[in-house]
Structures are given as C-alpha cells and as structure tokens.
Write a structure and sequence with these properties.
heterodimer; A: 101 residues; alpha/beta; three-stranded parallel β-sheet; 27% helix; 25% strand; B: alpha+beta; six-stranded mixed β-sheet; four-stranded mixed β-sheet; 16 strands
Chain lengths: 101, 373
C-alpha cells in the first residue's frame, strides 16, 4: 500500500515488512485424460479422504487411466515431503488432491 | 517458462500532515489488532532497534503465511505499536525466532480453523528484570510486560505474517489468546524446579517457551490434600474428546497453582511424578474418539500407530509424559490449576534461550538456538 504523504508533519510507519515472491507459471493443461497416469495425494483428513475416494470413483467410470496411484502426506498441516513430491512427479502425469477439514 | 522474482514493497517510513490523528491513521491503514496502537516515533523505533542489536535492515525471520520480512526495524515498529519498552526486545526477538523455526509450523498455526494461538512462557532472570507477572491473575490483565510482549507477537503475526481474520487466518472462532498470551513461570513459589531447568538450562539462563494452544481451562479442587486428588481433577479436565489433543495427539501444558504446588512439595512429588501420573491417568476410549464408528469406520491417522483401535481400548490424551509441559504459576491464594490443550501433532513446541545458547545439560535437539521439545 503506497503511503501518500506531504513532506512535513508526523512520521508514520508501515509495519508489514517486504514480501519477496517468486512467480511460478502454471503447468500446461492436458487435452485428454485417457491413457494418463493419475496420482492422488491425500492430506489424511477425514473429509478430504472422502472427497478423493468419491472423485476417484467418478473419474474412473469416465476415463481410462493408464495407472492410478494413491499417496498420503505425513501431516495435513505441513508441506508434503520433497521426496514424496519427487516420487509423485516421476511416476505420474497428472495429480488430484483435495482439501477437506 | 522462467520464474520471476518480485518484491511487494512500500516505504517503511513516510510523513503525514501534522493535523492527522495518528491513532485513527493506523486504524484506517489496517495496521491495528483492534485496539488503539502507540504511534511509533523515530526516537522510539531507533531505541528499540538499538536494543535489538542495531542494523535496522537485518532480517531476523520471514513470517508465514504472508512471508513478510521481519527486519529489526519492522520488529521495532510493531513492538512500539504494541506498547513495549525497548528492554523487552530480547524476549520478543527470541519468541519470534522460536515461532519461525520449522518445527513450530507457524504457517499452519496462523491458517488453521482451530483457535490455537502461540502461548509464551518466560523463565529465568529476565522475568524479574522486566517485572513480569507470574503471580495473581497471571493469564489476565494488568502487567505491561506480559500484555505488550504478547501483543507485539500478535501484531507481527497480523502485520508481517498476514494472519488477518478471514483472510490468511481461517480460525472458525479464534480466542481471546489471539490478543496476547504471555506469562512468566512463578519459579519462586512453585516448590518445583523451573521448567527450563528441567530441560537442561540453569536458573541463570533466561528462556522463552512457545506452544500453539487453546486458552487455559480452569481446574478447581479445594478439597484434596494429597497429590493424587488434585491431579485427578486435572485428569478430568484432560480426559475429554472435545480438544485437539484427543483427536490429533501432540503436546499440551499444565499450570499448577501455588497452593496445589505446595501439596506436591509436601509429599515430595517431582515434576517427573506429576507428568507421569497425568499421562498414565488421562485417557479416553478409542471408541469415544471414533464416535463409536457411528459415522463410518474410523482409524484416525492423526493418532500414533501404536494406539490400540479397539472401541474399548483406553488411549492416552497425549503420546507420552514428555508431551505434557508443566509450569507453576499464579497467586498464592486459591486452590486452582489449569489445563491448556495444544493444537495437535502438527506442531512442536520449542524452547529458546534469549541469546540462542543450547542448554549446558544437553538432552534436547537444538538448531540455531531453537530447541525442539
């Protein structure tokens, strides 16, 4: 938020600190899901799991995946382990995940 | 495609007309926790930066989930706005470094739908130097150091960390502890070794303990004159399925009031005895935690693998006695203690000596001065 100010008067401060960000471009959308390898990443929460299970069933009725693999994060509140993310990237073409509290 | 690095920035310091009401100005900018702030002046900010070690642009930490850069100048600005004296700088700095250590998972604590807020407990000589309250109304109002150190932490979590309600803070209910939540341990009246000494520090060391926590739950027992009777009341407060420890394990805290602590001392119960009694007696059945499978078969992956999943199996409220963090605090009159549920296995409490020194007694994993508990 720019702080418009004249040159005399009270000194005021912005208490927020600078944010340095790195823009990461989105991946290219795939045109056809058939024949792709699907990875499913669960955060291990009760409702998130329910959503993923039901979504998987619907998708598998409609799409002929080459493979479907299921993964779990160590904790729903933490980033997935980098090793797990590497495994998912290596073994899958697309990934499905869900947030459910 | 190449990644692009950018910085969201605005001038840290600017000037407004002399006729501006500064309290209202900070409200209008959205830089307040809801209470009026102390408008920072160049003199107050400079004095606090000096107390932090100088070098205003030095980045102490980046505060999630907004990941704002906590320079010493920004830390000082928030401390002044919260009403801190420059002397409080070592405690606020140590607390922020502890909160921003990976094990604490501040990102999760800030963003969770739970009501958790960081609890700070200060030990050692710094308590006296800053005239902190460890006695009557220790969790309540009336002491500048307790109130403004805790408030400075919250101001930083809001302004630098971006934990604004409904934005990056998704807490369903929040709690009063999200204004300020800072106490000192009553090392003189406790009759038990101070918390930080149990963890390997000496009585001459000053430390800050941080743990994501619910507000305190009062435990009253004006009848029992033995440790078992008093502790059974605390066990009763712990043994419910409503708090996060019951369904997500993790750490909790127990605060023993001085009258209850005197009974422990009379019977020579140590901190070890108290923690193990509480751990062994405070249980639920897995069936209760699983709602008797009424809503579907429950395994609950948030609880340790070694908890028995039979509906009649008794399971502990926290995984070990070391997951109960025991403190003595409060005024000398009144037979009260408190149970403080934590957030769950998603975060680890951490303990930090003010200068980042590891305990001489060892026994803990410490990285960059932050000790994981």
């Amino acid at each position: 938020m720019p702080l418009d100010a004249p040159k005399t008067g009270h000194v005021v401060y912005d208490p927020r600190g600078i944010v340095e960000t790195t823009a990461i471009p989105l991946g290219k959308r795939v045109a056809d899901l058939n024949g792709l390898r699907l990875g499913i990443l669960s955060n291990k929460k009760w409702n998130g799991n329910n959503l993923l299970r039901k979504t998987r069933a619907i998708l598998e009725d409609e799409i002929d995946f080459a493979d479907v693999k299921f993964y779990e994060k160590e904790s729903f509140s933490k980033n997935a382990d980098p090793g797990l993310l590497g495994e998912i990237i290596a073994d899958n073409d697309i990934v499905l995940t869900a947030i459910g509290d | 495609m190449a990644r692009q690095k950018t910085a969201e920035s605005s001038p840290v310091e600017s000037v407004v007309s002399g006729g501006v009401d500064l309290v209202e100005w900070y409200y209008e900018k959205g830089f307040s926790d809801g209470f009026p702030v102390v408008p920072p002046t160049p003199e107050k900010v400079a004095a606090t930066v000096e107390a932090l070690g100088g070098d205003a642009d030095y980045v102490e930490a980046r505060v999630p989930p907004r990941w704002g850069s906590l320079t010493r100048e920004v830390l000082a600005i928030n401390m002044v706005m919260a009403g801190c004296k420059p002397d409080y700088a070592p405690v606020v700095r140590a607390a922020m470094l502890a909160l921003c250590s990976p094990a604490f998972n501040l990102h999760g604590v800030q963003a969770t739908t739970h009501m958790a807020s960081p609890l700070l407990v200060v030990n050692g000589p710094i308590r006296k130097k800053l005239e902190m309250n460890a006695g009557h109304n220790v969790f309540g109002s009336g002491n500048r150091a307790n109130a403004t150190i805790g408030r400075a932490i919250r101001m930083i979590l809001l302004n630098v960390g971006g934990g604004w309600p409904g934005d990056l803070d998704k807490s369903t209910l929040g709690s009063p502890a999200k204004y300020t939540y800072c106490i000192a341990e009553n090392e003189e009246l406790g009759h038990l070794a101070p918390y930080h000494v149990e963890k390997g520090f000496t009585e001459d060391d000053s430390t800050v303990f941080v743990m994501p926590a619910e507000p305190p739950h009062s435990v009253t027992n004006h009848v029992a004159d033995d440790p078992e009777g008093i502790l059974d009341s605390i066990v009763s407060a712990m043994s419910t399925i409503a708090h996060n420890n019951a369904v997500s394990a993790g750490h909790c805290a127990v605060v023993i009031g001085p009258e209850h602590a005197a009974v422990m001392a009379k019977y020579q119960w140590t901190r070890h005895d108290i923690k193990n009694y509480l751990w062994y007696q405070a249980t639920n059945t897995f069936g209760d935690v699983a709602f008797q499978h009424r809503y579907g078969k429950v395994y609950n992956r948030s609880l340790p693998k070694w908890y028995k999943r039979d509906v009649d199996a008794r399971i502990p409220v926290v995984p070990s006695a070391e997951h109960i963090h025991l403190f003595c605090a409060g005024g000398e009159a009144g037979r009260f203690s408190a149970f403080i549920p934590g957030w769950g296995h998603m975060a680890s409490p951490v303990l930090r000596e003010l200068n980042g020194n590891a305990p001489a007694g060892g026994g803990m994993v410490c990285e960059d001065g932050t000790c994981y508990l």
